[in-house]
Every structure is written in structure tokens, then in C-alpha cells.
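Write out this protein's structure.
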Amino acid sequence: MKNLKYFPYERNRYFYGKLLGVEDFEAEQKYMNDKRRLINRFMHGCGVVCGLNVVQVESDTISVEAGLALDFAGREILVDEPVTRRLPELEGFSAYEKDTDGGSYLYLCIEYAEYEKSPVYSVASSGTDGGEQYSRIAEGFHIYLTGQEPEQGVSGSRAYYEAKKTLYWGNGIRISQVFPRYVRGGSKFDARIIVENMGQRQPVSFCYELVLDCLKKDGKQRFRVEFDEEKHERAKRYEIPIILEAESGSGMCGWVKLREGSFVLRAGGQVLETQADVEHSVEITAEPVGEVIGRRYLVEAMRELKNETYHQGIYLAKISLFGVGNTVVIDDVEEMPFGQYICSDVLSGIREITSEQQQAEMLRMIKAGGAGGEQRTAGEQTQETFACVSGTVSIGLGIGGVRGQKFFSEPVMHGLGPGSVSVLCGIAGDARKPSAVYYGSPEVFGEDECEVHAQTAVKVDMVNGTFVAGIMLTEATTAGSLKLHWTAFRDCEEESKETERSLFLKPDMVYLNLREDYHFEPVISGIGDGRILWSVTEKEGGSIDENGTYTAPAIPGIYEVMARSAAYPKICAAAYAVVRDIKAD
């Protein structure tokens, strides 16, 4: 059933002696399908219900996992088993090959499709078909690629309360603005500038001015937007938040316009010839914004549904690509770029239960003052300068040990996450001193004070967020185990400074011959300790020494080189080596 219109509803009226033909049976199917699809469209919406994850399996091949979706007409799209496809074999791939505007990605979409099957001979048929007809119609799906974004009206519920418009698109860069459609008079609201690098190799910077009407930025009706990619960690997408304020009142319409001639775009320091234009309208209301949006939906939903008579697929992934010779290689796969999900009753129930459990757990922790069994969370101090966690760990001694013998605990998850954490360990007293904990050497307090005399040490794993406690006996003991009390601290102020630290590799992509050497240069900002831990992601992707000199393998391909700060393991950067057999080329 390929119809995109639900109306009018007509069903068969049966009576004895009625002659039923093909049209009657098709009308029966259409009536049932249209009723179900109308309910699907209004009650559930359009998008993925479950599954349909997109996974890269080879350099130019993806797999769409099993799942269920509802399309814009309420039709069910069912993928009952994983589907693997090479990108060059998919419809729409030629849109990338013909693109000369610097674009380096395509969207992977899925749409409802029907196929005729089970051919049979029909005695009532005649003509060139030889009396052959298909006795079944299989409902299936069609996977394709496109460079176009979805229509605004069907890209999800977000379109009802905000508008995304493209300011500039070209030279491998796209700049978009996102503003709300409705704001409350006299209130502050958020907007954002989105910068997408889609193949521009040179660092990008731009500036322009926006003129406001019935809106203000820091009390002014004009402000300047600036962006410099060199001041950010290299990425494919950047967001610039903007806080604006609406004038007091209701029934007004605020405007955001680009000041003519103010837009300047640079790539690698060179000014590019550009043309840009964008305009946003923001309705100012005295009512709660949620009520205004809900009323608009109730009034306009039916009209929009009747006007949506075009085909529209569901966008499963945004696939970034780049060329290597005559081939195209997948650089990255971003799943569900427009968030076209359907929140089912089951998923809503799970979220509600999870939310209730989190609230109950938080309340319990507050009432208990942070007590949590074996591991106790003291929480952040009122000044929010330190986070503190404490607990106990037992170290088995077997049948005891002699002076100088060392024992170690299993790795302990301290709960403060990766990064720089300080851990302090103390030896618990024996049954004669159950309330005593000894930090340092127990010998200071006398031989009878503690059953086990030992020195303690802690090794913190800043990558995995764990630590190992160790002891070295200073006196022989026959005790079978030792209990340590530990406390872990994190400096929150120090952690917040990590947002000011950055690391990226220069360049982020190189083209090499087989077994060729190349030195990657790390560009570090805000990190006093310049030590770098180098690695190659692929098992047979070549090697790299401690100084950043990479040696390409003997096999052509694309390999990822990783650089990680030794002092701050969470700060890392990646570069790609495109290895080719130049002689063969």
C-alpha cells in the first residue's frame, strides 16, 4: 500500500449476494491499514522504536542491525536480521562522488518499501505478461544515501520549539544557528552557533555581527560572533552557546538578522570569498512556552499531516568520508544525527523508574550523611573544592610473613573516576585496639599497639580510576590478613582547569609510502607536564616511538595514531596516517 493519504475512510458494506471484486478487497486492506497508520503517526510519531544501529565493519562497508521504526506515514519498517552493504553499492552514493563543494559526508537513510513476490499463472490475465501475476506483496525497506537533510517538519519534536538555519555552507565548512521559536517575555534564553568541519583541512576562523530586535545581548541590540578553530581541540563539530534576553511584554516578534557585509571567513589565515545570510524570528509570549507549543501542535498537527504527501526516510547515521586515490573510506559514523527516536511506553516506564531510584538513592545518601556500607562517600565539601571517598580493603597474608616481605591488594575502584587522585591508607588495629587506625609506621606507638607492623604504599591508576595498596612487613607476623582503611581525594578546582587544557596533533592527517617514517608534533596548551604516551590503534598499523616518530607498516591502509597526556590521561588526540604503495600507484 503506497498511498500517502489516509482519507476518506470507506469500508465495505456486505450483504448476501454481493459480488466482490479486486477493488473491494483492496478497499478492505486500505481501510484497516490507514486506521492503524493514522494512530501510529499521531500517538507514536516518526522514528526508530528499537535497534537499527549502524556499525562500520570494513573501510567502506556498514551493517544495519535488526530493529523497528515507524515512518512519516505511520508505516512499520521492520529489519528482522542485520543487513551489510558496501557504500558504493547503495543508491545515492554518486552524490558524494560528484560533490565539489568540499562536503565529506553522506546520510544513511531507511524508508518503507513494498515488493511483489510469488508469481502465479492467472487464467483471467492476457497480453504480453503471458498471464503471469504476483500473488503476494512483501512489506520491506530500502536503504539509501543522501546529502540532503530531512525536512524541518519531520526531523523530530525539536522542530516545534526551535529552528535551525544554515548561515553558510561551502569550502568544507558549515555554520548554522539554532534559536528557539518561542520565549517568555523578560526572560533569558539559550541559542547556539554550530560549526561543522566537513573536510576543510586548514584551521577555520570567522566573525560576523548579529542585529537584534526586541531581544538583547548583555543589554545591547547588536553583538559580535567570533570563532577560531586553533583555540579549540580539533574536532568535527563545535557549539558556541549564546545567552540572550527577551524584552518584557507579549504578542511581539523578536528578530535576529545578520548585519550585511559583516561576515568574514578565513581558512589557514586566508580570507575566502563568501556570501552569507540568515534571519530568525522569535515569538515573545507571556504564557509558559510549553503551553504555547502544545497549543500550536494541537491546532496545526492535522493540517501538517494532510500536507505531508512527500516521501521522507529516517536518518540512521551521518557517515563521514574521505578519499584515498580512487576509493572512498569511512572516517566516522555518527548514529541518529537528528535524534529520530520514538519513546515507547516501555522506555518511558524504564526512565521513570530509573529517575525515581536515583532520587531515592540521593535522598538516602543525604539522610545517611554519606554512609554506604563498605565504601562510604563523604561527598563534595560545601566549598566544592574537594571530592572525598573512603573505604576498606583486606590484604591476604596467607600463613603470615617475614621482615621485608611484600603483599598487595587487588585493584580497588575508588569511585572518583580517571585522573589525578590522592589516596591515603592506614593499618587497622587488631582486636585489642579495634578503634585505632595507624597512618605511617605503627612502631612509633610501641610493639604491642598493632598486630602487624608494616610500611604502606599506594599505586594509583589514573586511566582506569583504580588503585592497588601494598605493604612491606617491618616485623615478622603470623597474622593471616591485614585490613587497610583508605581515603581518596580529588581536587575539584584542579579538575575544572582540565577544560582549559588541550592537546592535538599537527598535522592531523599525513600521506605516507610503505615503511616511511614521519614525526608527529603534539601541540599542547595548559599542560605543564609535556610527556606524551604514543600508540597505534590498529594491531598491524605500524609503530611509533616515545618521541612521536611513526613508522608506516608494509600494508596499505588508514591507521590511527593516538597521543595521550601522561599527566592527564583523559586529554588525548588522534591523527590518521594514509599509507599507500606509491610505486604501485
